[in-house]
Amino acid sequence: MMGPQGSGKGTQASLLAERYGIPAISIGEIFREAIKSDSEEGREIQKIIDNGNMVPDELTIMFVKKRLEDVDCAEGFILDGFPRTLPQAKALDEFAKIDYVIVLRISDEEAVKRLVQRRQCPKCGKITSVKEGEKCKQCKIKLVKRKDDTEEAIKKRLEIYHDQTQPLIEYYKPRDIVHIINGEQSIEGIHKEILVALGDTFAAEEESAE
Q1: Rounded to whole angstroms, how far apart are CA atoms 121 and 119?
Q2: Which residues are catalytic?
Q3: Half-sphere exposure (Cβ direction) of 196: Cα atoms closer than 13 Å
Q4: Is residue 1 part of a domain?
Q5: 14 part of a folded domain
Q6: Is it true that the peptide bond before 83 is cis, omega within 30 degrees of 0?
Q7: Of the candidates 75, 102, 106, 80, which has an alpha carbon nearest to the alpha carbon of residue 200?
Q8: For residue range 105-133, what is the model confidence (pLDDT) as tens digits?
Q9: Is residue 137 part of a domain?
Q10: Which domain holds residue 70?
Q11: Which end of the chain is more exposed for a tag (fewer CB within 10 A), N or C?
């Protein structure tokens, strides 16, 4: 899953994971777990993220490779937020096969608008919007604003996305696996477009039934 911050990659990855029974692997979640562990790598990641910067490729690749070796990835997986750079994409090719690249396209203005309204549960780490309430529906505690969700930090991350991640579309295009989806529609609309891109015949049958 590719797309700028706030494009809804995590939401769509979760929907696909539920539909196909394979894990949605969020690099953000991997980093959050590392930070919670209070390890040396976790503290380093926290400092980098708080400054609105990207975690170095070498460290990111190491975490992802280790995660893909888990048993639940044997039948497939969905990557959310990885790869983000060309070196990461080339490294990924050495230990995994990618069948589809789904790109959620939204404007920078929409990304900023969504992210400044984003909140996170300090306990489970789930990210949601202030529109959905002030408390985590699962943990029943007050949501907080992430340190890296200031407008200045968001714009900096968007610049990095356009400079480092967007070129990956051209990297994958020759394989004919890239599908660009309009990310500024409803969650349901985006999900249906993705299923069509994946050639999900059951999705077509479900839509006909409606």
Answers
A1: 7
A2: 9, 84, 118, 146, 157
A3: 11
A4: no
A5: yes
A6: yes
A7: 102
A8: 999 999 998 888 878 888 887 777 766 67
A9: no
A10: 9-105+158-205
A11: C
